[in-house]
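Task: sequence design from structure.
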């Protein structure tokens, strides 16, 4: 009969050290994006950064206030706009939450906060969000 491991051998998941740099993830959470979500989290963690996401926002807080706070607390952010598309329900409407969160990031204006935009179609971002061209 297997023995029960002692409590000393069990590890609890602890919060990262306060000095760990964090990365705000502005990415889709739907099932079709799940593998990329895991890839983003794994890569960010593997490089020693702490991933931050709107998933950690409690329902009791105003979502936009918490998003601004998460962005401001993060050193970096990744904005994956590859899933900005028209929905199927009439009237066909794109959801602009993710481009809006990119705008919040840029609008905060922290010169020490570095951000990157990811897109699934080559050159589409140059057309859809031409103001971020360098």
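Answer:
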């Amino acid at each position: 009969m297997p023995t029960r491991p002692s409590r000393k051998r069990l590890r609890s998941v602890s919060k990262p050290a306060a000095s760990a740099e964090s990365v705000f993830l502005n990415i889709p959470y739907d099932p079709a994006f799940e593998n990329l979500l895991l890839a983003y989290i794994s890569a960010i963690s593997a490089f020693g950064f702490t991933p931050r996401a709107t998933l950690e926002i409690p329902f009791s807080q105003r979502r936009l206030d918490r998003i601004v706070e998460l962005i401001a607390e993060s050193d970096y952010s990744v904005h994956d706009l590859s899933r900005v598309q028209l929905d199927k329900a009439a009237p066909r409407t794109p959801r602009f939450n993710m481009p809006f969160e990119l705008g919040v990031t840029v609008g905060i204006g922290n010169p020490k906060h570095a951000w990157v935009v990811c897109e699934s179609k080559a050159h589409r971002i140059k057309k859809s969000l031409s103001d971020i061209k360098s």
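Residues 1-19 have pLDDT under 50 and may be disordered.
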